[in-house]
Amino acid sequence: MAAIIFLLSMAVGVVTSQPSPPPSGNCHIPAIYNFGDSNSDTGGIAAAFYPPGPPCGETFFKRPVGRASDGRLIIDFIAEKLGLLYLSAYLDSIKANYTHGANFATGGATIKRVNESWFANGVSPFSLDVQVEHFNQFKDKTTYLYNQAKEESQRSNLPKPDDFVKAIYTIDIGQNDIAYAFRTLGVEASRVVIPDLVNQFVSCVQQLYGKGARAFWIHNTGPIGCLPVIYAKNLDPPPGSLDEVGCAKDQNAIAIEFNKQLRAKVIQLRSDLPKAILIYVDMYSAKYELISNAKDLGFKQWFTICCGYHDVDEDVYCGNRGKINGSEVFADSCKDPTKVISWDGVHYSDAANNWIATKITKGLFSDPSLSITELCPKHVSIM
Ligand SMILES: *[C@@H]1O[C@H](CO)[C@@H](O)[C@H](O)[C@H]1NC(C)=O
Ligand SMILES: *[C@@H]1O[C@H](CO)[C@@H](O)[C@H](O)[C@H]1NC(C)=O
Ligand SMILES: *[C@@H]1O[C@H](CO)[C@@H](O)[C@H](O)[C@H]1NC(C)=O
């Protein structure tokens, strides 16, 4: 199995470009609090460890900015859609601005703590439970500081305490737990861990609710069997192991099972947490639709990797130097990153994230089907 997942990427960075004004006619969502892995990390793991350099960020930000992509992530497009600035990472202490939310996601993060490390396997020490703990501290400290402030200027990068209940809480995590299970148990046996993962996920949602979160936007996990790095290593697939698009069927089956159980739990949470609104977003189907229609949508074949070299036993990840077929190479980007779905074999390109975000923010893959701009929390006091 490919040693998957989290390339990090990055460089401490605050993004300065200003999004368009908020859409009118919907409720005003003042902030986003995000939890997850590299799919939505806007600079957390980069601030905590080593930020990989160029060519990450080149398409949109024109420099590495802590994201595993050539440009924006889905969470960035969500922020744009809500008329908010891109989220600062909680772990980034340089010019962070938290007036409109914070990002607790870290590349390589898992739902459950695992017995591996950042240095050995690229696993983030900031698992979902730790991210929730970071949020708790964030909320308590910023509320204290906001209330202590003697003048407005002392609040210029702090969230308004009243906004926590009106914010949306986005979560996108699970892929690294599944990859970890593949590594340690094998693909088929991975099924056994799913209930535990989903329970832990739910427990984190309940803790956020206990801390006043009321509107949840929950992404399920993507088609891990369609990661181009897996495809690149699987040159001689056993007959019948790939689906009609070329993705690994058994790996996708585990993601599908995780999603099925997660969805059932989200439905359960709607009765357990009566003051909350919970949107379940079928990210798997959105990504799979893009992958299976790559050509028609103007992209190269889905397994094309823009940045990085991979074959059966060699890998030179994006932005690194290494040896492939006996020659020294630098893994730079392809000619036109706007035509590829996969930036680095694991993470999606700015163009792909844009396509996916456009669909999901309209509610086309959500249950209930609701545009993200209509995700108004049921206005209620906390607890
Ligand atoms: C983690 O590793 C330690 C020491 O190698 C071992 O004793 C423990 O059982 C492992 N825990 C899990 C959950 O695998
Ligand atoms: C933080 O962003 C808000 C907009 O959300 C802006 O009004 C404020 O001036 C910014 N604060 C700093 C310190 O840049
Ligand atoms: C290495 O060489 C082989 C044989 O020419 C080729 O099939 C393979 O794609 C090369 N590997 C990479 C990563 O370019």
Automatic annotation (TrEMBL):
Annotated signal sequence range? 1-17
Pfam families assigned to the protein according to its UniProt record, in alphabetical order: Lipase_GDSL (PF00657)
Protein name in the entry: Uncharacterized protein
Record has Aminoacyl-tRNA synthetase as a keyword: no
The answer to whether keyword Amino-acid biosynthesis applies is no
Q: Which InterPro entries match?
A: GDSL, SGNH_hydro_sf, SGNH_plant_lipase-like
What family is this? Belongs to the 'GDSL' lipolytic enzyme family.
GO terms (molecular function) for this protein are: hydrolase activity, acting on ester bonds
**UniProtKB keywords:** Glycoprotein, Hydrolase, Signal
Q: Which Gene3D superfamilies does the UniProt entry name for this protein?
A: SGNH hydrolase
Its source organism is Lactuca sativa (Garden lettuce)
